[in-house]
Amino acid sequence: MQKRFLASALAAVMTFAVMLGTVLPLRASALLFTPNATVQSDAAVLMNLDIGQIVYEKNADMKKMPGSLVQIMTAVVVLENCPDIASEKITAKEDMYKIFEEDEYPEDLRYAHISAGDELTAEDLLYAMLLTSSIEAAYMLTDHFGKGDQEAFTAMMNAKAEELGMTNTRYTNGTGLYSARQLTTARDMMTLLNYAMSSTKFETIACTNEYTPPSAAAAEKTDDWSWKHSNLMVDESSENFCKGVRGIKTANSQEGHRCIACKGSRDGNNYLLVCMDAPLKDMEGNNRFYHLEDAKNILEWAFRDLSFQDILPENKQLGQIHVNNAEGNDVVILVPAKGYSCIWNSTTDKKSVQEITEWPAEVNAPVHAGDKLGKVTLKLAGETLAEIDVIAEGSVERSFWKYNLSEIPGFFRSKYLKRTWVLAIVLSVVYIAACVFFAFRYHEERKRREAARAGHLRSKNQ
Prior knowledge:
- It is built from 11 helices and 18 strands.
- The chain is α+β, with helices and mostly antiparallel strands.
- The chain has 3 domains: 2-306, Beta-lactamase, CATH 3.40.710.10; 313-401, Peptidoglycan synthesis regulatory factor (PBP3), Domain 2; 414-461.
- The strands form 5 sheets. The chain has a 6-stranded mixed β-sheet with strand order 15-17-18-13-12-16, with no helix packed on it. Strands 3-2-10-9-8 form a 5-stranded antiparallel β-sheet, with helices on both faces.
- A hairpin with a 2-residue loop joins strand 17 and strand 18.
- Helix 2 (70-81) runs antiparallel to helix 4, helix 2 packs across helix 5 and helix 4 crosses helix 5 (135-145).
- The termini are far apart.
- The model is unreliable at 1-29 (pLDDT under 50).
């Protein structure tokens, strides 16, 4: 019960780590650039870990056979279902070797000299699998954590892929044995790799150059169990050595060809790289490690030519606007609300980025520093990179006299003044009409009274 709780907690922590990377605001965005060397791999994706964005891709969504790269997912599932890999012991079973012999491409399989009856910890087996692509280690792990059911373990892998949004991936086994239905893409592999590397334990194992199990001496297998990483880019004696590269995983198969997933760090820049489906042989039919050549060329290019650049500095003065009724200086300087930076290729002129600005010809005082007055749109080759608010760099106060003097013409043009004049005229007309009406009535009443008085006098005299 406690083990299941700890496993669930570990899975939650790893999931949160990936979600955190996608939720937190990034300090810059990224553009896609192309290496100056030919990439033989049919699909590739390069991600800058510092901003968590892809900076180069080739056929990123084309489905490919991953070969033993599936063992990265195998390791993730094991780590999330085993709270103590150092003490979880697993014994090699005899029947698995028959499965290996019956595989359609037995020459694709890599062995770590693990024999039937050998007992190793889950941690030992993870090292053997990730460093050497050990088919024995992969099978032992999937069998043990699938509780003897390979399909059950595969279901766990597919559930994890769905959780991570690997929509173009389908697993049919966790060992890397050949299956035409086991497919993924370079983009999905990058999603998985980025997630896996959020686990310190995974990174420690997958990036170790050489490992010997503590039990090797007692089993009299010190030489056989001295496992070196299959990624020759970490070997200083190899022509494929690349400074700053860490191993993670390679794959070689007749159908999936050569693949690699690795990490590169140099001068504060950190990258994850996935290359898939590189040719096994050159034009003359000789074996050639094109996947290693591609990885080295891409990473060397990234280290040399890609760097963070300010495309729009935060304090850049974009222009100015006239301020009406200003006290003193009657213009305000415009600056971006925030700067814009991204990974940039040193061979690309930054002047190729267009700055399309929009703001009014004038504004009325007062203006306060930070007031939004417009926007600037950054475009490259017709594509919008960013839209950024344009704000006032400083404040401009309003002049009392200028403001009031400016309001006088407006007073006479005011619609309220017009309404007042109309109302006054109407009221005047009504008043005059009333005066005429009452004057007429008074006049008529006076005539009536005078006529009555005259009639009274005549009757009295008679």
